[in-house]
Amino acid sequence: MTDQDEAALPGETGPVFAGDLVLSLATTGALVLEPAEADRLIAGLERTLDEVTERIRVVDLLRGASLDNLRRAHPEVERAVVDVVFAEQVGNNGLRRALDELPKYIEAFERAKRPRPGADRPPEPRSER
Length: 129
Known about the structure:
Blueprint lengths: L2 H5 L11 H10 L6 H28 L4 H7 L1 H16 L3 H19 L17
Helix pairs in contact: 2-6, 3-5, 3-6, 4-5
């Protein structure tokens, strides 16, 4: 059973990703988006990917850091670090999974900008009876 399968089980709190499915739909032409809409979605996903990357960096840097040292840096830093580390642990490593999956969505939406085969051809004339 994969991590993705585990996140889909009843009672699990981790996010469910379908990057491979969305990528497959875009590759086969079943998912087609207007270029402007695809660009908007991609921009949002790239911002999310940057945020996830930064949160993972913080978790990795501060994992094992002394809470006393964090508290001395700023009282709110300790709470923020504990919250992020806790969320990552409870969320079945959702941030790390998002780091793997978000690029698939970005690639899928890039591919989905392509017109469907024959989409640039004018429509067939309707026969009049």
